[in-house]
Design brief:
Order of helices and strands: EHEHEHEHEHHEEEEHEHHEE
Bound molecules: calcium ion
CATH architecture of the largest domain: 3-Layer(aba) Sandwich
CATH superfamily of the largest domain: Response regulator
Number of strands: 12
Structural class: alpha/beta
Strand content: 15-25%
Radius of gyration: 19 Å
Shape: elongated
Amino acid sequence: MTRVLVVEDEPQLVRALEINLRARKYDVDAAGDGATALSLAAQHPPDAVLLDLGLPDMDGIQVMRTLRRWSRAPILVVSARNTSDEKVEALDAGADDYITKPFSMNELLARLRAATRRTDGPKGASSAEATGAESGVVRTGGFTLDLLAKKATRDGAAIRLTPTEWHLLEVLIRNRGRLVTQRQLLQEVWGPTYRTQSNYLRVYMAQLRRKLETDPSHPRYLVTAPGMGYRFEG
Ligand code: CA
Protein backbone atom coordinates (compact mmCIF):
# COMPACT_ATOMS: atom_id res chain seq x y z
CA MET A 1 0.00 0.00 0.00
CA THR A 2 1.13 3.52 -0.72
CA ARG A 3 1.42 5.61 2.43
CA VAL A 4 0.62 9.30 2.07
CA LEU A 5 1.48 11.86 4.72
CA VAL A 6 -0.97 14.77 4.67
CA VAL A 7 0.47 17.91 6.29
CA GLU A 8 -2.36 20.40 6.58
CA ASP A 9 -3.85 22.53 9.35
CA GLU A 10 -7.38 22.97 7.96
CA PRO A 11 -9.41 20.14 9.53
CA GLN A 12 -12.07 20.10 6.81
CA LEU A 13 -9.49 19.77 4.07
CA VAL A 14 -7.69 17.03 6.00
CA ARG A 15 -10.98 15.14 6.30
CA ALA A 16 -11.74 15.51 2.59
CA LEU A 17 -8.26 14.29 1.65
CA GLU A 18 -8.43 11.36 4.07
CA ILE A 19 -11.79 10.20 2.70
CA ASN A 20 -10.70 10.47 -0.92
CA LEU A 21 -7.30 8.88 -0.42
CA ARG A 22 -8.58 5.99 1.70
CA ALA A 23 -11.31 5.32 -0.88
CA ARG A 24 -8.47 4.79 -3.37
CA LYS A 25 -6.63 2.42 -1.03
CA TYR A 26 -3.94 4.77 0.18
CA ASP A 27 -2.72 4.57 3.76
CA VAL A 28 -3.03 8.05 5.26
CA ASP A 29 -1.19 9.78 8.09
CA ALA A 30 -2.24 13.33 8.89
CA ALA A 31 -0.28 16.05 10.69
CA GLY A 32 -1.66 19.47 11.57
CA ASP A 33 1.75 21.11 12.02
CA GLY A 34 5.37 20.77 10.93
CA ALA A 35 6.79 19.15 14.06
CA THR A 36 4.12 16.41 14.02
CA ALA A 37 4.76 15.88 10.31
CA LEU A 38 8.50 15.34 10.83
CA SER A 39 8.00 12.96 13.71
CA LEU A 40 5.30 10.96 11.84
CA ALA A 41 7.55 10.79 8.77
CA ALA A 42 10.35 9.36 10.91
CA GLN A 43 8.05 6.74 12.48
CA HIS A 44 6.22 5.73 9.28
CA PRO A 45 8.30 6.74 6.26
CA PRO A 46 5.76 8.01 3.70
CA ASP A 47 5.74 7.07 0.00
CA ALA A 48 4.43 10.54 -0.82
CA VAL A 49 3.77 13.79 1.06
CA LEU A 50 1.03 16.39 0.49
CA LEU A 51 2.39 19.53 2.11
CA ASP A 52 0.65 22.79 2.97
CA LEU A 53 3.06 25.73 3.30
CA GLY A 54 1.17 27.87 5.84
CA LEU A 55 1.47 25.78 9.02
CA PRO A 56 0.99 26.99 12.58
CA ASP A 57 4.48 26.20 13.91
CA MET A 58 6.84 26.51 10.96
CA ASP A 59 6.85 27.18 7.26
CA GLY A 60 6.19 24.19 4.99
CA ILE A 61 9.42 24.99 3.13
CA GLN A 62 11.32 24.26 6.34
CA VAL A 63 9.48 20.94 6.75
CA MET A 64 10.48 20.08 3.20
CA ARG A 65 14.15 20.99 3.66
CA THR A 66 14.33 18.81 6.77
CA LEU A 67 12.57 15.88 5.07
CA ARG A 68 14.79 16.16 2.01
CA ARG A 69 17.91 15.52 4.08
CA TRP A 70 16.97 11.88 4.29
CA SER A 71 13.84 11.14 2.27
CA ARG A 72 13.38 10.92 -1.47
CA ALA A 73 9.59 10.43 -1.25
CA PRO A 74 7.78 12.74 -3.68
CA ILE A 75 6.53 15.92 -2.03
CA LEU A 76 3.51 17.68 -3.55
CA VAL A 77 3.00 21.17 -2.21
CA VAL A 78 -0.67 22.08 -1.82
CA SER A 79 -0.83 25.79 -1.10
CA ALA A 80 -2.82 28.96 -1.55
CA ARG A 81 0.44 30.82 -2.29
CA ASN A 82 0.35 31.31 -6.02
CA THR A 83 3.13 33.64 -7.16
CA SER A 84 5.78 32.14 -9.39
CA ASP A 85 8.51 33.12 -6.88
CA GLU A 86 6.79 31.05 -4.19
CA LYS A 87 6.47 28.11 -6.56
CA VAL A 88 10.12 28.35 -7.60
CA GLU A 89 11.22 28.48 -3.95
CA ALA A 90 9.22 25.32 -3.17
CA LEU A 91 10.54 23.47 -6.22
CA ASP A 92 14.12 24.52 -5.41
CA ALA A 93 13.68 23.24 -1.85
CA GLY A 94 12.82 19.79 -3.22
CA ALA A 95 9.11 19.73 -4.09
CA ASP A 96 8.12 17.41 -6.94
CA ASP A 97 4.93 19.24 -7.81
CA TYR A 98 2.92 22.30 -6.82
CA ILE A 99 -0.86 22.39 -6.59
CA THR A 100 -2.59 25.70 -5.96
CA LYS A 101 -5.58 25.93 -3.60
CA PRO A 102 -8.44 25.73 -4.29
CA PHE A 103 -7.81 22.57 -6.29
CA SER A 104 -9.92 19.85 -7.86
CA MET A 105 -9.69 16.55 -5.97
CA ASN A 106 -9.44 14.61 -9.25
CA GLU A 107 -6.51 16.68 -10.40
CA LEU A 108 -4.73 16.27 -7.07
CA LEU A 109 -5.24 12.49 -7.21
CA ALA A 110 -3.92 12.35 -10.79
CA ARG A 111 -0.82 14.32 -9.86
CA LEU A 112 -0.27 12.10 -6.83
CA ARG A 113 -0.50 8.99 -9.04
CA ALA A 114 2.03 10.52 -11.45
CA ALA A 115 4.43 11.41 -8.63
CA THR A 116 4.33 7.97 -7.01
CA ARG A 117 4.70 6.23 -10.41
CA ARG A 118 7.96 8.08 -10.97
CA THR A 119 9.46 6.73 -7.76
CA ASP A 120 8.24 3.12 -8.16
CA GLY A 121 10.66 0.57 -9.53
CA PRO A 122 14.11 -0.56 -8.43
CA LYS A 123 14.70 2.45 -6.20
CA GLY A 124 11.27 2.21 -4.56
CA ALA A 125 10.25 1.62 -0.98
CA SER A 126 11.79 -1.82 -0.49
CA SER A 127 15.37 -0.87 -1.35
CA ALA A 128 15.00 2.31 0.68
CA GLU A 129 13.87 0.29 3.68
CA ALA A 130 16.83 -2.00 3.23
CA THR A 131 19.23 0.93 3.53
CA GLY A 132 17.41 2.20 6.62
CA ALA A 133 17.97 5.76 5.45
CA GLU A 134 14.26 6.42 4.92
CA SER A 135 13.60 6.30 8.64
CA GLY A 136 16.31 8.89 9.24
CA VAL A 137 18.34 6.37 11.27
CA VAL A 138 21.45 4.74 9.83
CA ARG A 139 22.99 1.82 11.69
CA THR A 140 26.33 0.31 10.80
CA GLY A 141 28.39 -2.27 12.66
CA GLY A 142 30.38 0.55 14.24
CA PHE A 143 28.08 3.54 14.77
CA THR A 144 24.51 4.83 14.59
CA LEU A 145 23.40 8.12 13.08
CA ASP A 146 19.97 9.62 13.74
CA LEU A 147 19.75 12.20 10.96
CA LEU A 148 16.56 13.80 12.27
CA ALA A 149 17.53 14.11 15.92
CA LYS A 150 21.16 14.85 14.93
CA LYS A 151 22.46 12.23 17.33
CA ALA A 152 25.48 10.09 16.66
CA THR A 153 26.65 7.22 18.84
CA ARG A 154 29.62 4.89 18.64
CA ASP A 155 29.79 1.81 20.89
CA GLY A 156 26.95 3.30 22.95
CA ALA A 157 28.74 6.63 23.54
CA ALA A 158 27.44 9.92 22.14
CA ILE A 159 29.65 11.56 19.51
CA ARG A 160 29.46 15.28 18.77
CA LEU A 161 29.37 16.22 15.10
CA THR A 162 29.41 19.77 13.74
CA PRO A 163 26.67 21.05 11.39
CA THR A 164 29.09 20.78 8.44
CA GLU A 165 29.96 17.20 9.35
CA TRP A 166 26.25 16.34 9.49
CA HIS A 167 25.67 17.98 6.14
CA LEU A 168 28.50 15.98 4.54
CA LEU A 169 27.18 12.75 6.01
CA GLU A 170 23.66 13.52 4.80
CA VAL A 171 24.83 13.96 1.22
CA LEU A 172 26.90 10.76 1.34
CA ILE A 173 24.11 8.74 2.97
CA ARG A 174 21.54 9.96 0.45
CA ASN A 175 23.84 8.43 -2.19
CA ARG A 176 24.71 5.39 -0.11
CA GLY A 177 26.86 2.89 -1.98
CA ARG A 178 27.43 5.32 -4.86
CA LEU A 179 30.38 7.58 -5.62
CA VAL A 180 29.80 11.26 -4.83
CA THR A 181 32.33 13.46 -6.64
CA GLN A 182 34.44 15.99 -4.74
CA ARG A 183 32.88 18.74 -6.81
CA GLN A 184 29.35 17.62 -5.96
CA LEU A 185 30.11 17.44 -2.23
CA LEU A 186 31.82 20.82 -2.16
CA GLN A 187 29.04 22.46 -4.12
CA GLU A 188 26.31 21.00 -1.95
CA VAL A 189 27.93 21.52 1.45
CA TRP A 190 29.99 24.71 0.98
CA GLY A 191 28.39 26.26 -2.11
CA PRO A 192 29.29 26.74 -5.78
CA THR A 193 32.27 29.05 -5.15
CA TYR A 194 34.08 26.27 -3.24
CA ARG A 195 33.84 23.63 -5.97
CA THR A 196 37.62 23.26 -6.30
CA GLN A 197 38.58 23.37 -2.61
CA SER A 198 39.20 19.64 -2.26
CA ASN A 199 41.48 20.32 0.75
CA TYR A 200 38.31 21.20 2.75
CA LEU A 201 36.98 17.77 2.02
CA ARG A 202 40.17 16.02 3.03
CA VAL A 203 40.16 17.82 6.38
CA TYR A 204 36.50 17.14 7.11
CA MET A 205 36.58 13.53 5.96
CA ALA A 206 39.63 12.88 8.17
CA GLN A 207 37.73 14.42 11.09
CA LEU A 208 34.64 12.29 10.45
CA ARG A 209 36.72 9.15 10.22
CA ARG A 210 38.44 9.92 13.51
CA LYS A 211 35.05 10.33 15.14
CA LEU A 212 33.22 7.41 13.54
CA GLU A 213 35.56 4.77 12.16
CA THR A 214 37.08 2.09 14.39
CA ASP A 215 40.31 2.27 12.39
CA PRO A 216 40.42 5.75 10.81
CA SER A 217 43.44 4.94 8.64
CA HIS A 218 41.58 1.97 7.11
CA PRO A 219 38.05 3.37 6.82
CA ARG A 220 35.27 0.86 6.33
CA TYR A 221 32.31 3.22 5.91
CA LEU A 222 33.68 6.55 4.68
CA VAL A 223 35.54 5.33 1.64
CA THR A 224 37.78 7.43 -0.63
CA ALA A 225 37.78 6.89 -4.39
CA PRO A 226 41.22 8.46 -5.04
CA GLY A 227 41.11 11.51 -7.28
CA MET A 228 37.33 11.22 -7.70
CA GLY A 229 35.34 11.50 -4.52
CA TYR A 230 33.84 9.60 -1.61
CA ARG A 231 31.36 6.85 -0.97
CA PHE A 232 29.37 5.81 2.09
CA GLU A 233 29.44 2.02 2.47
CA GLY A 234 27.59 0.08 5.11
CA1 CA B 1 -2.55 26.32 6.13
